[in-house]
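Q: What would this chain look like folded?
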Amino acid sequence: MGRQGKVGAAREAGLARDHYTGDANFTPEHLHSLSFQILQLRSLRPRRVLEVGIGNGFVSTFLRQSGIEVVTADINPALGADICAPLAELPERLRGERFDVVSCCEVLEHMPFEQFGANLDVLRGLAPNAFISLPGHFPWLGFAGRFGIHNRFVNVCLGLRIPCRRRLTDGHYWEIGSHWATRRSALVAQMRERFARVDSGVFPMHRYHYFFRCEGGA
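A: My prediction, written as structure tokens:
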């Protein structure tokens, strides 16, 4: 499931800050993903959150403004995270620290899939709850939006995924469905070995992103 080219830590640690702050990161779809992360994290009622993969800082900034203590970690020194270290080193760097939930969005696909189980073990050791998002491999065709009357809205999504072969997104070792071992049901099965409850789905208005809400120790 590996691929040629600059991927993983070799790529992510050297990206310029404007990679995360350019126009592509502030499209309605991308902003919906960020707001959905915030909504899901707040619903867990945490007092302290560890965010692995700070991105443009949108999520951590909002959570802090709402009174939640957030510690950020990233492999890229240009992003100004509280801790600059790869995921595997965080347990040692954070020894004695306690968090209610760890957020790890669009991060694990930048590491070889063979490390997925070990990465889940690290996340489970950092907090009893985790919110994880990962990219899907297959294109999606359809309609996504919000339907409402006055100030009451519901998300509406009609469409289907198109099974076809395509190259992985730059920087990714794997994506959901890019290989038999990376299908969503297989990922959930591994998560359920470590957490008591795992709910998964797709972001309502950004179908490229899947989410996994993991709660409690198994």
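The radius of gyration is 17 Å.
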